[in-house]
Recover the amino acids of this structure.
């Protein structure tokens, strides 16, 4: 009976996927939308699937809200350009413990670009 119990325990343990790493901490966020490149430093706190934090370009700091579901990361930033609000929606994939790759959408303009986020060293 003992070998059977050991086999069941290994089968259960082998079927449990490891949780993806937490995004809590400081990240460098690089956007490229039609050749317009911007960089921000973001500080995130992840609690379960909820992602909250702030991002700064060195002049303006804005709130970041989002979700993490497995390796899928979504996030929204809203900032000001003059009197206009600019909404940036991010959809990406955690490709390594320290890297997220994906698409950024400038909602008001209806244009997309690419982004890379890397954990600050």
């Amino acid at each position: 009976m003992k070998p059977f119990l050991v086999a069941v325990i290994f089968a259960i343990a082998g079927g449990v996927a490891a949780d993806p790493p937490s995004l809590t901490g400081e990240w460098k966020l690089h956007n490229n939308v039609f050749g317009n490149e911007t960089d921000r430093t973001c500080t995130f706190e992840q609690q379960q699937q909820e992602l909250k934090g702030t991002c700064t370009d060195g002049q303006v700091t804005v709130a970041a809200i989002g979700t993490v579901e497995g390796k899928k990361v979504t996030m929204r930033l809203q900032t000001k350009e003059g009197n206009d609000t600019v909404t940036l929606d991010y959809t990406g994939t955690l490709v390594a413990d320290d890297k997220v790759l994906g698409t950024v959408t400038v909602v008001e303009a209806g244009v997309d670009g690419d982004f890379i986020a890397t954990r600050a060293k």
Observations:
- The domain at 20-119 is CATH 2.40.128.120 (Lipocalin).
